[in-house]
Every structure is written in structure tokens, then in C-alpha cells.
């Protein structure tokens, strides 16, 4: 079985390879399935809140903490000027962060750097753990990091490449579904404090426009990431 996986994952750099396509289809199923999405959405929330936290720090705001909840929602608390570019970019960063992480993962996989991707994920999770302020958040980070560590430590390079391809696809697809979910919540009047609504109040640009921007960014990263995973020639 491992020889078969090694053969498939060795083709990840080949044009139109079947291994990457299968990984993509599995990831799409995990995102669309009502059985798997409620659990795996925690991973998307981690990436989302991590995006808020990184941009808050880069914009000069003080990061007060991150909370991850069992309903897969999250909250990143920072202090600083309540208006202006720093606040705008902090609110803007969450949804694109998921897709951009997936894009970065796709690049690392096709560059034959799957192990580096795994350790980079672990390092980011450890850094994020320092900012977590609730028990469920700690559990989410530890479980996610534990799975990634197990793959990095025990899996063969072939399995590592396949798992990283699957993870990259999952983030690329998973970055789109929460935007659609937010649109439905807003239509039902249940998301007045969403990132999009806060951005609308700060900038004057309608919340729907921010949703459209995030969705277009998600589609663009999915297109580029898919091309890297499926169509890049072997190097």
C-alpha cells in the first residue's frame, strides 16, 4: 500500500496527476459533508482567527487573546485605535487567511517541501497557543497540532506529501464555505456583528461588497492552488 501511495505522491509534480486530483475530491467531500464539516470547521476557524491575530500585531495593535468555541466560532481580541487602516486590515484578514494558507501549502507541496509545511504549521500553532484564552481553544490547537505532528514524525515522505496535498485542498475549499454561511446568516438577520458588517461601518462599503471581495479572493486562490497541485510540470 505504501508503495502505491509513494508512486501516486511522486506524481504530485506531474501535469494532471491523479493523486492530487483524488486528494482534491476527498477534501471537497470533507468540506461539503454535513457529517465531517462541523468538526473540521474548527481547523478553518483556527486559520481565520490566526489571520486576525497576525495582522493585528503587524498593524501595531495589542493582541489581548484568542478564543475558539465549540460551535466553531472564534473571537480575536485586540486593542488600539478603533478606526483607521489597522482596524480595517485586522477585520479584513480573517476570511482570506484560510485561502492564502491553503495556497501557501499548495506551493510547498509542489516544491517538494511537504515536511517543511508540516513543521511550519506546528510552529504557527505553538505561537497561537500562547494567545488562546479558553479551554476549548487550547484543546482545538493541541489536537490539531498533535495530528500534524504525528504525520510529520511517523509518516513516510510519500504519506506526508499526500496528507499535505489533502490539507492544502481542504483549506482552499474550506476558505469558501464560511463566506457562503455568513451570507445566509446575514440574510436571516443573525450576523450584525460579523467582520463584514463591522467593515461596512468603518469604511462605508456595504457588507455584501466585502463578502464578494472575500469570495473572489477565495476563488482566485483556489484556481491558482489547483493549478499548482495539478498542472505544474515535474522539476
Automatic annotation (TrEMBL):
Q: Which residues cross the membrane?
A: 12-32, 87-107, 113-131, 136-153, 159-180, 209-230
Carries keyword Cytoplasm? Answer: no
What is the name of this protein?
A: Peptidase M50B-like protein
Pfam hit, one: Peptidase_M50B
Q: Which UniProt keywords apply?
A: Membrane, Transmembrane, Transmembrane helix
Amino acid at each position: 500500500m505504501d508503495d502505491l501511495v509513494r508512486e501516486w505522491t511522486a506524481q504530485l509534480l506531474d501535469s494532471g496527476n491523479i493523486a492530487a486530483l483524488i486528494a482534491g475530491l476527498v477534501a471537497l467531500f470533507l468540506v461539503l459533508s454535513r457529517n465531517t464539516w462541523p468538526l473540521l470547521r474548527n481547523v478553518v476557524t483556527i486559520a481565520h482567527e490566526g489571520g486576525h491575530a497576525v495582522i493585528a500585531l503587524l498593524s501595531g495593535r495589542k493582541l489581548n487573546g484568542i478564543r475558539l468555541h465549540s460551535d466553531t466560532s472564534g473571537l480575536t481580541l485586540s486593542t488600539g485605535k478603533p478606526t483607521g487602516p489597522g482596524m480595517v486590515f485586522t477585520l479584513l484578514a480573517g476570511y482570506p487567511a484560510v485561502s492564502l494558507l491553503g495556497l501557501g501549502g499548495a506551493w510547498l507541496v509542489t516544491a517538494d517541501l511537504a515536511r517543511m509545511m508540516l513543521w511550519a504549521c506546528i510552529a504557527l500553532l505553538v505561537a497561537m497557543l500562547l494567545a488562546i484564552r479558553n479551554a476549548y481553544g487550547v484543546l482545538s490547537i493541541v489536537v490539531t497540532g498533535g495530528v500534524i505532528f504525528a504525520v510529520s514524525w511517523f509518516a513516510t515522505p510519500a504519506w506526508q506529501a499526500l496528507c499535505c496535498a489533502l490539507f492544502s485542498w481542504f483549506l482552499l475549499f474550506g476558505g469558501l464555505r464560511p463566506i457562503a454561511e455568513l451570507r445566509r446568516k446575514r440574510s436571516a438577520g443573525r450576523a450584525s456583528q460579523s467582520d463584514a458588517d463591522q467593515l461596512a461601518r468603518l469604511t462605508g462599503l456595504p457588507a455584501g461588497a466585502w463578502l464578494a471581495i472575500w469570495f473572489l479572493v477565495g476563488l482566485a486562490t483556489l484556481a491558482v492552488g489547483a493549478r499548482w497541485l495539478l498542472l505544474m510540470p515535474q522539476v
